[in-house]
Amino acid sequence: MRGTQRKQGNGVWGKVAFVDLTTRSTWLEDPGEEIYEKFLGGIGLSARIMWERIKAGCDPLGPENVLCFTPGVLTDTGALFSGRFTVSAKSPASHSWGDANCGGYFAPALKRCGVDGLVILGQSESPVYIIMDEKEIRIEDAAFLWGKDTIETELLLKEEHGNRAQVACIGPAGEKKSLMAGIFTDRGRTAARGGLGAVMGAKKLKAVVAMGNTKVDVANREEIIRLSREYAKRLKKLRRIQPYFGDKILGLVGRLTRPGLFYMRQPADLWRLILGKFGTCSLNALSAESGDSPVKNWSGVGYKDFPLRASHKIGPESVIQFERKKYGCASCPLRCGGIMVTPEDWGIEGETHKPEYETCCAFSTLLVNNDLKSIFIINDMLNRAGMDTISCGGTVAFAIECYENGLLSIKDTEGLDLRWGNGTDIVKLVEKIIQREGIGDILADGVKVASQQIGKGAEAYAVHCGGIEAPMHDPKFDPGFLASYGLVPAPGRHTVIAYQYLELQRLEKIFSKAPKIPMVTSRKSRFQYDSDKIEGLAVDAFFKMLIDCAGICLFGTQVGGQMPIIQWLNAATGRDLSPDDYLTIGERVFQFRHLFNTREGINPAKDFKPHPRICGDPPFKKGPARGVSLSYESLVKLFYERMNWDMKTGQARRGYLEKLGLGDMLAPSSPPK
Hints:
Blueprint: E1 16-20, E2 25-29, H1 33-39, H2 43-53, E3 67-71, E4 85-90, E5 97-102, H3 106-111, E6 118-121, E7 128-132, E8 137-141, H4 150-161, E9 166-169, H5 172-175, E10 183-185, E11 189-191, H6 196-202, E12 205-210, H7 221-235, H8 247-256, E13 262-264, H9 268-278, H10 283-290, H11 302-305, H12 308-311, H13 316-320, E14 323-327, E15 337-340, E16 352-353, H14 357-362, H15 372-385, H16 389-404, H17 423-435, H18 439-443, H19 447-454, E17 464-465, E18 468-469, H20 480-486, H21 499-505, E19 520-522, H22 523-526, H23 531-550, H24 565-573, H25 579-599, H26 604-607, H27 612-615, H28 632-643, H29 654-659
Parallel strand pairs: 1-6, 7-12
Antiparallel strand pairs: 1-2, 3-4, 3-6, 4-5, 7-8, 9-10, 9-12, 10-11, 13-19, 14-15, 15-16, 17-18
Helix pairs in contact: 1-2, 2-25, 7-24, 8-10, 15-17, 23-25, 23-28
């Protein structure tokens, strides 16, 4: 992948580091000017690398899979909210394109090593870790780390290499190749989805240690700093209102935002206020009341099965009573995270990260469990084990429903009474899943694999999208999520497409293609797909690829203040591209990832089709989503038409790909034999 050397001073180094664990060799490659022009960096760079390096049909847990770590073009440039990196590989859970995004402080440390990405090839015979700075890359023995949890691993590596070292690692879940394993950094930030921690574990790679200390050059750093200062000032307004938001008030707000006769667009200023005060757990009670949160393994209704008198016990004020200090990722002015200290009798050692909304919902609303202690314990356990909390919560919900319907017996669970809301035994089940002990071994690879092993009709309770457990946002509240779960290259994601993202991001102010979102939408219109809505979802998907190329946080795009992302990109790269030019880059990256999947023989409409409960089949008789049944078929038809995909094969049309500059990368309909 060598090409014409890229000039310095434009936000990238023009170098990618490669490590082959089989041969124990390391080297640098120059991707070439054209690659950066077409794909920018970040997830776009990893897409190009994976296309060239991964053979169609390869085993995701075999040596032929490739693991990429890529910070963004804006990472460490002075742009706010730019502390993200992407991990990419073929997913062992969905057997499709896989990527996971993560914050913390690893991204700038990796970029300061003088590279735009780290690519892991091959497979080691024994546990190893990689350590790198701007001068060298080494492969070191990791036998002393194998079996350690993520926090122990990070502390040991910092003792070995100093506090400047930033660590991305796996825990026991990754070592045991659980298809729910993620990659963790900064003691609680995670690239969680798609089982990429299992890819790292299969390669016997325990950790990557980045110790870079050289800042990348940009075309106009003064302009980036000026833009960031002005943007930060705009974000500071309205903070004095924050103290008036509490558990029950937010729950009542959720009650008011239930889709009734009409639905009002969400204001970014309100989201910024509650996110800055509470973090994502601000949604805990609000979403249970509004119908945003799935309940009782997607079969229940919030106000009936998990009403405000229950949900407020796991609400934001209940959570942050244990917060000792705010936590923010690199370059974040909002600091939505938190470092917590819990009561001694809870058994959590030292400080722990605040459980995020997805974790709280997965182990409360989804399980009808309002035992806050159990949620904190499970959050700490899964952070240490290196396991995705969304997938694990979905798997526990599946197990409870199997138990409730006689598919699992008390003998199968080794004495665990898997009832809804039984926090004590839920904690014990999570322990078994982490250790792959007894029933935990069956559940450790998620609901799709578990339902196949249990049989007896268990797939009826296995709520997933293409092998990935469904996230904690119900498309029967926001129908945009249905496209995000079942039609994007990495299925089962809640961070790609949604109506509420369009409402918060106000993309019509940036891109000419983005349709204007009305202030008020009727209930009937909200749950019907049409070409204007699909155009909005497409623009949203392309914008998400752009921010992942840039290394920008999704939340940062949703908190108002008119983020100057286009101006930042031009100041960093020295280009003079229009917003629509940058959106085309995002579109190209989105379609390139889709090409990866069609080369694997994947047609998302068929292979990623969400579980019927997600669509409202059968529809609820009560609650905010009463009578709502989303037409996946209508969504597919409109989405495929907009994306220029063939309905039968899922393949993109040649003329469209040629227009995007991807005409020479058409994939065969199935993997070569």
